[in-house]
C-alpha cells in the first residue's frame, strides 16, 4: 500500500485543516501538485475527505495489469480520469512466450468506461487484444474528445478501425500504434487522417507492416502544421522527399528504407526537415547511404540504428560525428570499438540500448559487446540513466565501473548471450553487489545470465541491495532454493518480478512471494514445476490470484498473435494481486489455483 | 528435430562424405555461374508444404554442392519452384541437382505429413534462440536482412554496390513473394 498512517496529532491538524480553516477548493489545488501515485495513495488514507478529494482530482491512473481490478471499480473510485493506461499480457509476450489466447481483452474496459468517464482524453493500452468493435465503441463514446490514443504492441484490429478513428477523432494529437499487429485493409486510413485532422503532433505506426501512400503523408504534413514526430514502416526514402519538404516542424522521424542500395544518387536528394533531431528506422542503410544523414549528425539527439546494415567500422565513423546524442539504439555489431567511440564522443548520452544481432557481416572477428565496451561507456558517459545491453562477455570489474561512474542510472538491463563458451569472470556476485550499492537511483533491473553466472551469495546481494528497485527480471541466477529465499528476504520495495530459467522449487517460489511485502505481480518460467502446481498453493492469500500453465508436451501446438508457433514449452506461473477475483475469461490451458480446488 | 534428419541425409548423398564435409566448411558464398542456358524447368505437381519446409539455408547448401561437380556439369538452367504463393528461382542448377531436390522433397512428403515437417522446422528455428529470444520486430528485421543478403529481392536489381557491401559472396537465387 505504501505510506504510513499519520500520528494522531497530525491527523487532528489535518482534520481541522479540512473542516475549519481551509476550504475544500484549496485542498483540491494542493492535491493537484501531488503527482506520485504512492503519495496519492498515502494522502487518500488520511481521512474520508482526503479520500474523496483524491478521487475527484486524480487525472491519471495506470493499471499495471488489466486483471488486477474491474473496470466498474476503477470508475467508482476515480470518476474524473482524463488519462488511463492499461497493461495486458505479460512482458514475455514481446518475445513469443505467451500464446495469443491468453486474454487481456480491451473489450470490458472500453465497454464500461468509454461512456461514463466524461473527462477521458487519453487512452493507452499495452499488449492487449483490441478489436475493431472495441475501437468503434470507444470512438462512438469519446471520439469528439479523444486527444491521445496509444495502442502499444496490441493486436486484433484492422485498418478499418483506424479509418473510423481518422474520420471521427478530429482532436487527436497523438496516434501511437508502434509494434501493433494490424490487419492491413488498405491505406485509406492515412488519407482520412490527413483530410480530417489538423492538430496531429505525433503519428507512430513504427514496426507495423502497414503500407501507406507518400502522397497521403504529404497531405498530412500540409494540413497538420503541428506534426513533430512521424514514425512509420518501411517506405523507400526517396519517395518521402516531398513529405520532408512539406513538414517544416518535424523533429522526429523513424522508418523509411533504402531499398536500392548502390544507387546513392537517388538518395542524394533526400533532405530532412531543418529541426530534425531524432532519426531511426533507416532500414538497410549501409556505408554508401550513411552520408545522407551526415549533414544532420551534429544536431541529432536520438539515433536508432537497429535496422541498418552498418559494420562496426561504419558505426565508428557515424557516431564520431554525433556529439549531442542523448539516446542511442544499436545492435551488437557496433562492437567494443564502436562503444569506445561512443564513450569518447557522446558525453550527453542518457539512454543506450544494444540489441542482439545475428552474425552480422562486417562484425569484427571477436564480435559483439563485452566488458571492454561497457567499461568504456561507463567511464565516458556518466549521465547515463538507462542501459540495456546484450553482451558476449562480462566481468565483475565492468559492473563495478558502472556502479562507480553511472550514478544517475535508473534502469539497467543486461543479458549475457550464450554463444561464447568461456566467460572471463563468473560468477558475477561482487560486480552486481557493487553496481546495486552504488546506483542508488535504480528502479528497474534485469539480469539474465547463464547457469553459474550468479551464485546464491550473489542472489542474496541482489535482494539485500535492491533498494528502491520496483521491477526485476532475473534469468539463470542462483544455485538453490536457499538463494531465492535470501533474495526475497531483502526485497522490501519490489513490486513486480519476472524469473526465467532458474532451478527453484515451487515451495521456494511460494515462500519467496510471501517474504516480499510490496510484491504484487510475479511471472515465472523455467523452474522445477510439478504437473499440478500444488506447492504453489503455499502462497495463497486473500486477493492473490495464482495461474499455472502446466508444462506442455512437445507435440502440442499453439499459435501467437502473428501466426508464428509459440515456442514456450516450459511451465509458467503468473500470480498477482487482484481486487477482481478470478478471471472469467481464462483459456483452457491456464489453470487457476485456489483453495477450493484442493 | 528428428524429422529433419532425412533431409540432411539426402544432402550427404549428393557427394562423397569427405568432400561433403570440406564443402560445408567453405560454402559461405558461391559464385554465379556464367553459363545460363535458355531452357528452364519448372516443378509441377509437387506438394507445396514439403518445399515450404525446406529452409533457404538448406537450399543454398544444395547449390553450393554444385561447385564440387562443376567440371562435370551438364546443362545448367534456372530452376523455378512454386509453393505456398511464393516463387523461388535458382540460377545455374544442374539436372542432377534438380532431380535430387525433387527426390528429397518427395521423400519428405511421403515419410510424414508436410504440416508436421513445417511445424517442426518452425519450432526448431525458434527453439535455437531459446531462452534468449529477440523482440518480434528485430526478428522480422533479421529475417528481411537474411532474405536480402540471399540475393536480389523484389526491389533490388543486381548491382555492384550490393556485391561490394556483402563481400565476395554473390548469391545464386532469389525469392519473390506473390500475392496469394
Question: Explain this structure to me?
Answer:
The complex is a heterodimer of chains A (598) and B (180). Chain A contains 20 helices and 23 strands. With 598 residues, chain A is an alpha/beta fold. Among the domains of chain A are: 26-58, Monooxygenase; 62-233, Alpha-Beta Horseshoe (Leucine-rich repeat, LRR (right-handed beta-alpha superhelix)), CATH 3.80.10. In chain A, α14 runs parallel beside α15 and α16 (396-405) runs parallel beside α17. The longest helix of chain A has 14 residues, at 8-21. Chain B has helices at residues 5-12, 17-25, 48-52, 56-65, 95-111, 114-129, 136-149, 160-166; strands at 41-42, 76-83, 86-94, 173-177. Residues 1-51, 55-74, 111-131 and 152-180 of chain B have low confidence and may be disordered. With 180 residues, chain B is α+β, with helices and mostly antiparallel strands. The A-B interface holds A 94-97, 179, 207, 236, 259-264, 283-284, 286-288, 306-307, 309, 331, 355-358, 361, 390, 415, 417-418, 448, 475-476, 500-501, 526, 557, 562, 564-565, 567 and B 119, 122-123, 126-127, 129-138, 140-142, 144-146, 148-149, 155-157, 159-162, 164-167.
Write the layout of secondary structure elements.
The complex is a heterodimer of chains A (598) and B (180).
Chain A: H1 8-21, H2 24-32, H3 37-44, H4 48-57, E1 60-63, H5 71-77, E2 83-87, H6 107-113, E3 122-126, H7 132-142, E4 148-152, E5 155-158, H8 159-168, E6 174-176, E7 181-183, H9 188-196, E8 202-204, H10 214-223, E9 229-231, H11 241-246, E10 252-257, H12 264-268, E11 278-283, E12 302-304, H13 312-319, E13 327-331, H14 335-345, E14 351-355, H15 371-380, E15 386-391, H16 396-405, E16 411-416, H17 429-438, E17 444-448, H18 456-464, E18 471-475, H19 481-490, E19 496-500, H20 506-515, E20 521-525, E21 544-549, E22 572-577, E23 591-593
Parallel strand pairs in A: 1-2, 2-3, 3-4, 4-6, 5-7, 6-8, 8-9, 9-10, 10-11, 11-12, 12-13, 13-14, 14-15, 15-16, 16-17, 17-18, 18-19, 19-20
Antiparallel strand pairs in A: 20-22, 21-22, 21-23
Chain B: H1 5-12, H2 17-25, E1 41-42, H3 48-52, H4 56-65, E2 76-83, E3 86-94, H5 95-111, H6 114-129, H7 136-149, H8 160-166, E4 173-177
Parallel strand pairs in B: 1-2
Antiparallel strand pairs in B: 2-3, 3-4
